[in-house]
Design a protein that fits this description.
This protein has 6 helices and 9 strands. It is an alpha+beta fold. It has one domain: 2-Layer Sandwich (Dihydrodipicolinate Reductase, domain 2), CATH 3.30.360.10. Strand 5 and strand 6 form a beta hairpin. The two termini are 25 Å apart.
């Protein structure tokens, strides 16, 4: 997500101060369908195989560290996820050290396509990204306003991001510079994911030191 042009533009808007200090961040991330059971049983669960990308993106956008995690989750679909200690729908609240609050909603069942939206509300305004559609054609008639569907899944939606990741990696090797993303970034996202799992189990907010 850090290499997605849309997310990078959000980051730029925040950094130059166009909306002031972030106060609320809302992330919607919903998959069109769940992965196979063979994947789910070894994935570590929704927080570790799906939400973790949103946790990292939240840190990237807010530029601060999470101090509290509170997670709620349920199983609404037909897959027997309970036997793998997993869920298909979640709402997670993060609180950052400087006070910014984050609400993330995840689902493995989005019948209308891959849903990826982000909104940042600041002291002086807000900035947001909407879903990337298959095309920009709009139709308006007696039945309403119609647009193309959202990109099918993450490969299509984040195709440019994957290219940017590879280009960044190559550039890092050529110029012998430290990578733009550190091991600490990965560990921080993992710590949030593990705290979310614990919060779901004990039904209470979990502090991260």
């Amino acid at each position: 997500r850090r290499f997605d042009p849309h997310i990078q533009q959000l980051k730029s808007v925040i950094e130059v101060g166009k909306i002031g200090k972030p106060r609320i961040l809302k992330i919607t991330s919903r998959d069109p369908a769940p992965p196979p059971i063979a994947f789910i049983k070894d994935s570590g669960g929704l927080f570790l195989d799906m939400s973790i990308h949103d946790f990292d993106m939240a840190r990237y956008l807010v530029n601060d560290e999470v101090v509290q995690v509170y997670a709620h989750g349920s199983v609404f679909g037909d897959l027997p996820l309970q036997q793998y200690d997993d869920i298909d729908t979640a709402v997670i609240t993060l609180v950052f050290k400087k006070g910014c609050m984050v609400q993330i909603d995840n689902s493995r069942y989005s019948t209308y396509g891959y849903d990826q939206r982000v909104e940042v509300f600041g002291e002086n305004g807000m900035t947001a990204t909407q879903n990337v559609l298959d095309n920009s054609v709009q139709i308006a008639n007696a039945t309403g306003h119609h647009t193309a569907r959202s990109k099918h899944f993450f490969i299509e939606r984040y195709a440019e991001s994957y290219r940017n990741v590879l280009l960044n990696f190559i550039d890092t090797l050529i110029h012998k510079q430290p990578p733009s993303i550190s091991a600490e970034d990965g560990l921080a996202a993992l710590a949030i994911a593990m705290a979310a799992k614990k919060s779901l189990k004990v039904k209470t907010p979990i502090s991260i030191s």
